[in-house]
Amino acid sequence: MNDAATLEKPSGDVTQLPRAKRPVRTVELPESIIEVVSDSGEGAQRCGQSLGSVAAKSGNGVWTVEIIPAEIQPPARSVAGASGNRVRIGSRPVTNGGDEADLVVAFNEQVLLGRVRAGELKPGCIILLESMWRNDRNPSVVASYVATRDKLLEAGYRVYEIPMEQECRKLVSDPRRGKNMFVLGMLCSIYSLDLELAREQIAITFGKKDQKVIEANIGLLEAGWHWADANLDFRYWIPPAHVAQPQLVVNGNTALALGVLASGMEICAMYPITPATSVSHYLSDVFERVGGLVHQAEDEIAACAFAVGASYAGKCTATVTSGPGYSLKQEAIGLAVMAEIPMVVINVQRGGPSTGQPTKGEQGDLLTAIYGSHGDAPKVVMAASSIEDCFYSVITARKIAETFNMVVVLLSDANLATGQQPFPRPKFSEGWLAPPIDQSAVAEGSKPYDWDRVTGLARRFMPGQPHGMHTLTGLAHDRDSHVAYDPLSNEEGLRHRSLKLAALQKTLRPLQVFGDGSGDLLVIGWGSTKGAIEEAVARLRADGLKVSSLHLQFLQPMAPGLKEIMQRFRKVMTVESNWSDDPSDEIVDAENRRYSALAMMLRARTLIDVDCWTEVRARPIKPGIIAEALRAKLQE
Amino acid sequence: MTLEVTNCLLRMYEEHHNLEDYQGGVPRWCTGCGDNAILTAMQRLCRDNDLRPEKTVFVSGIGCSSRLPHYMRTYGFHGIHGRALPVAEGIKMARPDLHVFVNTGDGDCCSIGAGHWIHGIRYNMNMTMVLHDNHVYGLTKKQVSPTSPRGLKSNTTPRGAYLEALNPLTVTLGVQNVSFVAQAVDWIPEALYDVLSMAFRHRGFSFVRVIQRCPEFLPNMFDPWLQNPQKTLLLTHERGLHVSANMAKVYNNRKEHDPLDLDRAREVASAEDPIPVGLLYQNPAVPCYEDLRRSGQLRTADYVRAGLEAEFDKFTVWPAEQERSKPAA
């Protein structure tokens, strides 16, 4: 795009020259939100992730959020094409991506504009902008750059123009590919992070490549560090908390995959779909090393049917998918419910309906998860609420599936899928693993569906067990697994399959309220919004407001004591990332208003007048926005 | 995985099974239905190979044919329409020690489950699939199927089927990794049994199409073939169909066909009259998907733990030895 002559030309007429260096005072901050955005393929994501890892190693609380365009290669320099990472670094553990950004690094002014228009920047925040566009051969690029920069300055942003490419060219021939490590160096300097940790991080990131690549990137890192040190007039320090425990830093999808490994499951069947696929990418790489395998089936239906077959004949099996794939699996899920075959179905939710928003998170599949498949198909529905939870939930899901011979649906979403957060390294327990499959003879004459009258549970007979032979069927069947169309047998099957949910509910731990056990407002949430909701509640509580929150891990069945807790609050509302009608819309009234999924469930279950507040803006809900909604509810 | 565990069970005594050991519920197919012939041949096959009933699974989808598992006294899996193959593949992957059979119909396999059929051939897992092809939907009461001849009047094509019939043999032989294709007809039980035996002995995905009568909805469709033995072409070869003296007397329209010859197999498969009966193609060298995928490693807790800890190590941030302090200004 730029010819060398233009770049070599001294550019004394513009403001990108280093500012006069004054002694820099290091300012202590409790936390900071940093965004790095570029065109797709310029490495801003790797830069952001590396920054997150370095901060985590330093003992800081970290949460990273990927900024992903929907297309793989959106046009360069486009407002909708911003690709990168948001990194929130704090002194204390960080549970969500936070509100607006404090500092943004942008590789061009167009992707920056995308973030400005989305309202992701704090007014007056620091912007570090690549200045090469000033010298672009294309006059319209220059004009757009200058105009954007001027407008941002006018709007009060602190814009620093930085000759990133020019500086990188001193070290490498293709600066477009190395700029991200230069930026990492700058950020390490700005946030007083240990350069040695960053060097180690580069060695890990590029570990598979040869030493020259690692050295070149370390060179760029150091150049960025020195440039910032010499030229920038601000520096921050976010005191780390002392962490005595080793921490695992992974994103939600990797955590899910690690959970599959740790659960003792042996087979995961899948079909590629965004944003679930990276679970299988990672699992495909490592599963065989622990004796398991990922089967990429010919379609979503086959993936689910494969999992059903494998679970029927062996240990519980997992299938991983997202929205549209989850819809396709419904018939096979119904079969597993009917035949009481354990199976774990992981749904990394994305925006829907239909193809919806493949890379964006939403909590729109709750009711489908609970009620999906035709007829009455009771299954267990859980939701992971943090990265750590993604890991442990798979282990729990496998156990429940095998104990109750049920389908367990585990809901995650795109926000957890790509978000990173350190959590204590799990300590292996043999109890995580599935027991060996039972190949002992069953007593002659015993029945394959000998349902317990109280719990609905029946021992599962599996191929290889002498005297256990029967034909499993998706048709209505009696205790012998014989097809039974008579009215009593049908009802008996339905009753016992349903009773298993009640039996599981009796074993669930009572809920823990975040905040006081009674008050003016109880907020109920589920899934990835936990961190943001609790942060909002904490802020209001700090202001003396009587707000508490509950976060549900189990959506079906729900933990005991829920109604009793709700009754101790004057108002109850859910906060969710799915659709609900706005009661102030002209033709919406109390009779026709469509509530959000959890609110609908809670209203039906408790007969309490639960309200809801929802947002579906294809981004994680910000704690500040939740706090406003809660204040409004309190003032109603 | 579980292969070693399930295979090391010691057999302390020899078991011998008779036909009754494989007979489940009383078949509820119509009198004269070709499914009965297939069921009988299957039960004979199990007995003659002394298959342990608890180690044998018959998997089916939905349709008349898919009732078959209920009439066996082995493990059975009567699942959902069109999905017998992926279920069977899951079973075989989890448990290579089991004998897996798939019974499917022309609607189940060639229509709603067609995608799985193509990929089932590619996976080439060690199982026997029998396509009960009666050219019509029976359970739902006479609708046109993909293998119905053009012009067939049915409840959904009252003025006759619009399209030419799909040929399951040529489709199967056209898919990469095909390893076994044979055809039989329900009215020559001896050949049916022999074809199923060859299929069972083949290590890989054995596809057997059985042309069968539906006395209820297409009562006369195969009369010309029943009346004229010349309309049946027996494929003979030393590695193929065994033609007994009795069979030879009736069916003297025979042709020597080398089952290793894929091009000739495709030609034979294309001919619909006379109907070819016997082994069209067999390639024992195609690898089985389960052999490619399974490590065979016994998964002890220590083994899983070691693998998991190694993964944890990749992502672990160890606490710094010294607490960082605020840098000097």
Tell me about this structure.
- The complex is a heterodimer of chains A (636) and B (329).
- Chain A has 21 helices and 22 strands.
- Chain A has 636 residues and is of the alpha/beta class.
- Chain A folds into three domains: 234 residues, Pyruvate-ferredoxin Oxidoreductase, domain 3; 184 residues, Thiamin diphosphate (ThDP)-binding fold, Pyr/PP domains (Rossmann fold); 117 residues, Rossmann fold (3-Layer(aba) Sandwich).
- In chain A, strands 11-10-12-13-15-14-20 form a seven-stranded mixed β-sheet, sandwiched between helices.
- In chain A, helix 7 packs antiparallel against helix 8 and helix 11 packs parallel to helix 13.
- The longest helix of chain A has 21 residues.
- The N terminus of chain A is likely disordered.
- With 329 residues, chain B is of the alpha/beta class.
- Chain B has a single domain, classed as Rossmann fold (3-Layer(aba) Sandwich), CATH 3.40.50.970.
- In chain B, helix 4 packs across helix 5.
- The longest helix of chain B has 15 residues.
- Chain B is elongated, with a radius of gyration of 24 Å.
- Chain B starts with a helix and ends in a 12-residue tail after the last strand.
- The chains are: A alpha/beta (636), B alpha/beta (329).
- Chains A and B meet through helix 2, strand 9, helix 9, helix 11 and helix 13 of A and strand 1, strand 2, helix 3, helix 5 and helix 12 of B.
- Strand 17 of chain A pairs parallel with strand 2 of chain B.
